[in-house]
Design goal:
single chain, alpha+beta, 2 domains, seven-stranded antiparallel beta sheet, five-stranded antiparallel beta sheet, 7 helices, 22% strand
């Protein structure tokens, strides 16, 4: 699995929903094969309703069924599209025979790809967690993004538990790492790679109790963007 037991509490523990066997078979026929972990995601959770409420757009089998879709411009299997189409994450055609292949991101109309996650399993977990921070499922949250100094970021990293998955080069080529101290709270730390730069963060929780636990570490730190 792809850390689904860690992801669902960030959305308020919804009942997961998946694609039909017919939809999965159509994708397998289109690409010749599908990685096992992609099939698992499609079958078990890809159509979970609140997964659609995030910042970006998950690409599902039904999207490939639409006529004149932009998805026909690449032979890569696209998993996630940035909300304004700035970048896309997907699996390269030559990697589709692997059970859990790496995921790449492109900014150049599919002509160049950069590593985003070492496996689909890690990509799904990191991207689903990142997207959860933008949903209204987590009502306990400040209204702003925050800039943190390197010293403040170090305090946060020391005070919270880092989740074992991350994203590289997603949207504005930032590295995204994820932290929490309760199952239903989350801090997303976005590093834009500038030397001695200040990372940006977004944080929140599903319950007030978990939000206060998060504030015990991050409260009073940072400046609103």
């Amino acid at each position: 699995m792809y850390h689904l037991e860690t992801i669902l509490p960030l959305y308020g523990s919804p009942e997961p929903g998946g694609c039909s066997e017919e939809e999965i078979a159509a994708m397998r026929a289109r690409f010749g094969t599908l990685p096992a972990v992609v099939e698992d995601f499609y079958r078990t959770a890809a159509k979970t309703e609140c997964f659609r409420w995030g910042q970006d757009n998950w690409i599902l089998p039904e999207d490939y069924g639409r006529e004149a879709s932009w998805l026909g411009n690449t032979d890569a299997l696209i998993l996630l599209n940035e909300n304004q189409g700035v970048c896309q994450a997907g699996i390269l055609k030559q990697d589709l025979t692997l059970p859990d292949p790496p995921v790449y991101v492109t900014y150049d109309d599919f002509s160049r790809w950069k590593p985003c996650a070492p496996s689909v399993r890690e990509f799904l977990a990191a991207a689903l967690a990142y997207e959860a921070a933008f949903t209204h499922v987590a009502p306990c949250a400040p209204e702003e993004f925050y800039w943190f100094t390197p010293e403040e970021a170090a305090r946060i990293k020391a005070g919270l538990t880092k989740l074992p998955f991350a994203l590289k080069d997603w949207c504005s080529e930032m590295e995204i790492t994820l932290y929490q101290n309760a199952p239903d709270n989350l801090l997303v730390l976005m590093d834009f790679g500038a030397e001695d730069g200040e990372p940006q963060a977004l944080y929140g929780a599903v319950t007030e109790e978990s939000y206060q636990k998060l504030l015990a570490v991050v409260g009073g730190l940072g400046e609103p963007v």
